[in-house]
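Example 3.2
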Amino acid sequence: MTLSESGRLVAEQHGLEGAESRDDAIVVARRGHTGVVLLDRPEVGNAHNRAMIGALGEVWLEFDDDPNVRCMVMGSTNERYFCTGIDLKEVASVGLRGGRRRLRGTGQTHRDVPVLKPLVTAVDGMVVGGGLHWVVEADIVVASEKATFRDSHVNVGFVGNRENLGVALKAGLGAALYISLVGASAILDARRCQELGMVQEVVPAGDALRRALELADIISANSPSAMANELRTLWAFATMHYDDAVRFGSELMWKQQQHPDSVEGPRSFADKRKPEWEIEET
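Structure, written as tokens:
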């Protein structure tokens, strides 16, 4: 589909390759070893509708299956909104039944995929409700100094689940209870979210996507197999007792030591050259 004007401008500004629109809801592109997804429904605050959810599911599976993609970046084509959650006008019209799939095409979210690749989320503007998915399930979050974060589930009679629990995991139970129960009136700014651990870097307004892509370039130079096992190790801590997570991580550490990348890394360092990582087909 034809790119929106905002999508075209962002693609040109950031050197994105092969940018295309999917279902008039997201822009999909690549830059080097980075797969890029930009939410592109600015007229409704980048709210999730069924078309967007379907398109997101398809592209995540494409990136998961593409051995050339080593890192993924999630962002927006505009600086006013990152994502304002579910499209309430669509819900009012057709209801929730049949549309309550998770945001991945297989009924999974980013943390559930079998082959893990780092996800960097770039937040410019407003995040509300379901938009928090992309914040709490990201591995790294870069937010502009004007970004804001809030939850509105209870304001419209809904109960938040993974996104609210993700806030509790990353920012603490107190922060999750505060934004979940006070609702849209409780607004956390980027600096506060950085203090709580939900955001890793705060940058000037309009600079979040640029910095996220820069980080993705850095990340993509690392061993894909090592990063996948590192992600499994660290995210296991979210669902396991500490001792169980340590044992699980030890198994993955031993597994990685048998991988060719664990030999190539030290050799390339000693030879003062860039490593040639083994790329595994998925």
